[in-house]
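Let us work through a complete example step by step.
Step 1: write down the sequence.
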Amino acid sequence: MSEHPLDPVFHPRAVALVGISSSASGRGASFLHALLDQQYEQRRPLYLVNPRATEIEGLPCFPTLLAIPGPVDHVISLIPRDGARALVEQCVAKGVRSLHFFTAGFTESGEAAMAEAERALAALARAGGVRVLGPNCMGLYVPDERLAFGIGMPREPGDVMGISQSGANAQEIVSGLAPRGVRFSKVVSFGNGSDIAAAELFDYAASDPQTAVVTAYLEGVPDGRALLGALRRCAAVKPTIILKGGYTAAGARAASSHTGSLAGPGALFDALCRQAGALRVDTLEELHDAAIVVSTAARHVRGRRAVLVGGGGGFSVLAADALARHGLDLPELPDTTRAALRPWVPIAGNSIRNPVDAGFIGAGAARREALEQVTTIAALTPGYDVTIVATGGGPPRPAAGERAPDPDDDDPAEPPLERTRRQVALLASLQERGGRPVLLVRRERADADLAAALDVTAYAAGVAAFASIPRAARALELLLDWRRARAGLPELL
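Step 2: predict the structure and record it as tokens.
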């Protein structure tokens, strides 16, 4: 823990769910099930408040927050809007440190009276020593504390923090990155931001010892000066990736009705990110890929000279086009490298200039040896900045007699998961030996389970894995453009 004022919010010693329905599918049940899924109640006190129930899911219920016998640090409000003020007063009386309003219907409604009610609630809470998340948000995911707002979120802590105005996009940050092996220090959805908002969260992330990379989805910027200062502090010490919603007129209208945010002009936000040294992305997909790049060995890419080892024919042609569109170059391999490759790559139907076609170089154990030799030769050729390998992760082996083995299956006797581990281990070794990053692109036809295993295994080994060549190329472009834009700022990667 740091000494930041928000630390108690992320490290509560007891949680209460106020207004939870007694029905397994009723109001707020998903929050209870998420906490039970994390086994929060086995580590810390978990209290339920429902005046019409004495027990829910084996946990005792209390008629009011004040009836709970022990101290409560964090309250999740699941009650209707009309009861919000009384709950704030109870939180103050109880000595609660933070209050998460899942409760909605305030500023985002567009009604001036509701916006004023939200401001009054936040002021009342702050005056009583209670910090507020929301209204209209999903709240906290802190694996180290077993806090979560969704079922199935990884229990293992990591070092990536997510900051999101949107609850849905907070979930998308987790669901897009967790299957690729990323683990989180914290993810916070802050909704309308009546009290705790983006600027203070960036300030916290900058000093949080558990966080190494920061990702964020923002809509409105109510205090640009405060946000710029906090973002500067954060981006000076940690890679900080920002996705801004509300760039278009339609998006700005949607943001206003979503979190009550007034989305400012996109050009101003771009300038803010440039001044702060943050990496701005355009889509959630780009946010996911940028997070992979900055948290693996791919972060060490310094230039745009790439060597590509991939499937032959049209795949290599389209791959070369995609890399060029994103500002990457594929310089022809030197004669010495091509001479070393030729014994392993048949002349017919294959090129070894760069890209190196590896689509038709034998089958079975012979293919395995050829692929390893070709990949090694290409990855150790000096004069390049990054190696991109797109030959692994084919579909699983069919049952005997169903159809011919897939050509990517380089050893029929080897289980697919073992093959995945072997391929990743080779790439990780080549990263170390060659002194430059190796990116892995799994073919789009890969079996879903095997692709997921490939992503997780690669991330654990420090190898950046992507679903397609265009996504890998765009991620590298974002990294290199960001590095150039940070000229004069502290070196991070």
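Step 3: interpret the result. The chain has three domains: 1-136, 156-295, 300-485.
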